[in-house]
Each structure stands twice: as structure tokens, then as C-alpha cells.
Design brief:
about 260 residues; two-stranded antiparallel ribbon; 7 helices; disordered N terminus
């Protein structure tokens, strides 16, 4: 039988949901006896490709199928990759990247924070992320939407999208993260491939840059751009020149595109 499912589509801010029917067609393969079993939806002619060099975990609840632009540049032609990012901006990124179903389940326009009010441009995103327990506030009841985010704080938020199989067990700490409040979340993200161990230090209390955010989010979405495979008509930014270690990540995050 066709199964009707609830999806939500979104316009520009403020966001207004509407309901439409979407149908899931029967998948090939036997019906499992155990609900925990998985039916492989790969059909005739499809090829499953494994790349051992990119063992990235899939983020639960995020859209890793459509390569949408999730970072918007500025009117002056910059994207400011080395600038810091605020808590409201982080909430907005993950709100945009949620799957329709995950967003609809956790949808909220209200919250208990004293400094996130109806009418704030980030209210819907913050309220939904808080309802999904992706982001939390502070003991005094505030959210501090304009506060810049540290590297440890961002990775701790990212870890909320990991499945329980990623425990971080057996992963070594960086030289500067042992005993840190976010050490467990950092180890889990290392295990998932979202954080690399090319350097001995992690600098957990440094403010994270926009480029670093884009690099980690791309890994969360299993988006692995390569300079040789960029689309000719893509948007470019005066402050994201070729040759930087973040060029590819920024271009991937700021350009919607199809991919193979």
C-alpha cells in the first residue's frame, strides 16, 4: 500500500509550513521478520561504491542527499571564511540542513530562553534546535544567540547528530583535550571522521571560524569536494581564493549543485 507521509516545505524567513502528500513506493526485497532488520533499497543497475579513504559517518536527521547551499555570503562579495560564527548562526545552519521529516517532528517557534523572542530572525531555528535537544541554553535561562562559538562547543553540537554506535571508545584524546568537558564528544566525532587527527592539538577553547564550520559540516553530510570537479558557473568569493586549505570546503558549502 502507498503510505502517506507528512513533509514540510519552507519559504524565506519567517518560515511557514504547509502539508503535502508524498508516497513511498514498495522497496525490493523480503519483508524482515525482525523490525530491526534493514531492507536494502538498491535496485537493478545500481552500484554501491565504498571509498575506504573517506570513512565518514552519516549524520542522523540531516539532508545528505541534496547538495544545497547552507552558507550565504555577503553583499560585498565576501564569505568571510576566517570570521567567527555565532550560536544563532549555527542553529540556522542545522535548521536549514534538517530533513523535512526531522524538522517537522521537532518544529517549534517557542522556547524558554529569556533572550530569544518571537520576531527574532533566529527564533524558529533556535526553538527547533532546542526542541530537538541539539542545542541547549545556560543556567541563567539565556541562550546568548550572538555569542561566538568555540571549537569544542561546535563539535559538541555536531555530536548530537551521531548514532549511539559512535562511543569514542578507543579513540585517543588530543594533547589539549584530555579532561576537557567536551572530550567525549570530540572523540566521537574523530571516530565518525568528522574531526581529523592530523595535528596533535585540537585547540578546543579557540573560537571556531566559518571555514572550519564548513569543513566539519561537509564531512557530516559526506560532501567531499575536489577542486578539479567544481562547476564553472559557481558563485565565487573575493576572500576565498584558490590555494587556501579551505577553498574547496567553502565553495561546496556556498553553492547548490547536483553531483555524481
Amino acid at each position: 500500500d502507498n503510505i502517506g507521509k507528512l513533509f514540510v516545505s519552507f519559504d524565506n524567513n519567517p518560515v511557514t509550513p504547509y502539508i503535502r502528500n508524498v508516497y513511498r513506493l514498495p522497496q525490493p526485497g523480503p519483508v524482515p521478520d525482525d523490525p530491526g532488520d534493514i531492507i536494502d533499497p538498491v535496485g537493478p543497475g545500481d552500484v554501491e561504491i565504498e571509498d575506504p579513504d573517506i570513512p565518514l559517518a552519516s549524520a542522523i536527521g540531516l539532508n545528505d542527499v541534496e547538495h544545497m547551499a547552507y552558507i550565504v555570503g555577503y553583499d560585498d562579495g565576501t564569505v568571510r571564511p576566517l570570521a567567527n560564527i555565532t550560536r544563532a548562526e549555527v542553529a540556522t545552519i542545522f535548521f536549514r540542513l534538517m530533513t523535512d521529516v526531522y524538522r517537522a517532528i521537532n518544529w517549534s517557534t517557542t522556547n524558554d530562553f529569556s533572550d530569544v523572542n518571537e520576531g527574532d530572525w533566529y527564533n524558529n531555528a533556535v526553538s527547533t534546535c532546542a526542541n530537538a535537544e541539539i542545542m541547549t541554553g545556560y543556567a541563567d535561562g539565556t541562550f546568548l544567540p550572538n555569542k561566538s562559538v568555540t571549537r569544542a562547543e561546535f563539535v559538541a553540537i555536531a555530536a548530537q547528530f551521531l548514532g549511539g554506535e559512535y562511543t569514542g571508545e578507543g579513540i585517543e584524546d588530543f594533547t589539549d583535550t584530555a579532561g576537557h568537558w567536551a572530550a567525549g564528544e570530540i572523540r566521537r566525532c574523530v571516530e565518525a571522521g568528522w574531526v581529523t587527527t592530523e595535528e596533535e592539538t585540537f585547540r578546543p577553547d579557540d573560537l571556531i571560524t566559518r571555514a572550519e564550520v564548513m569543513t566539519i559540516v561537509n564531512r557530516m553530510l559526506r560532501r567531499t569536494p575536489h577542486e578539479d570537479h567544481m562547476i564553472p558557473a559557481m558563485k565565487t568569493w573575493v576572500d576565498n581564493p584558490k590555494g587556501t586549505d579551505y577553498y574547496e570546503a567553502v565553495q561546496e558549502a556556498t553553492n547548490e549543485h547536483e553531483y555524481e
